[in-house]
Amino acid sequence: MSAVISGLHIYPVKGLRGVALPEAAVTPLGLEGDRRWMVVSPEGNFRSQRQTPGMALIDAVPEDGALSLRCGDDVLVVPRPDGNAENIPVEVWGTWMQGAAASPNAGEWLSERLGQSCRLVFMRDEQTRPVEAAHNGGEDHVSFADAFPLLATGAASLDALNEALEADGVPAVPMDRFRPNIVVEGLAPWAEDGWRRVRVGEVVFRMPKPCTRCVVVTRDQRTGETPVAGQPLRTLGRLNRNGEGIVFGANLIPETAGTVRLGDPVEALD
After folding, report:
1. Average pLDDT of every residue of the chain
2. How far, in Å, CA of 92 to CA of 254, rounded?
3. Which segments constitute the MOSC domain (predicted)?
4. Phi and psi for 118 in degrees, rounded to 5?
5. Conformation bin of residue 202: beta by default, left when phi > 0, alpha when psi is -120 to 50
């Protein structure tokens, strides 16, 4: 079976729910619209499902240049900050940059639902941050994503993990636990770990390193709860780890631009 894209997802707000798409434009920062918004503390530090599992309960959907937030029956439409919006210092994993502050009612709405004081910020094009120097080809940038522009996962790797989980008496988990941008069907289990360069549809990517995983994969992305303590992270650690930790999926940096679509072929180049 040839490898093809079987899933495409963006996460408009870092840490909130994702959106499935039939196709997506690839920009230097990743899939268009991915993680350009972020929830931060009053001090500007990013909020994450690691410490704030309730973020998994909030949908975030792009809507005609604005952002629609939904939690249950409550909906708030947030305009994209204009040129007059305040720029504030914000942080992702120790890197500080500027973010454009959204309207105060967005922070109030999020604070009420998450039970902690929040602000919402948007990353304008000129507010990007460089990929860490050890993996930067010179002009590589990333949005509010953790470290790299995109994440790809293999469906067969999830199948292998779920087989091991069920053997341990643990329920299988869906792919959304790993919050990928691109899901690939037709690879051998863990084959994506060995990519160096890969063509996805019409776009070529570089793979700097596999993605190390954390406690977020234990969160049910529909409820924010952890159904089985430590799982699937514990079983994954037995199956697939490297010198940096437990891994699942491949981080990607675009080398070219273009559009990727469901059903597009995926081919390892190196």
Report:
1. 96
2. 21
3. 118-269
4. -135, 155
5. alpha
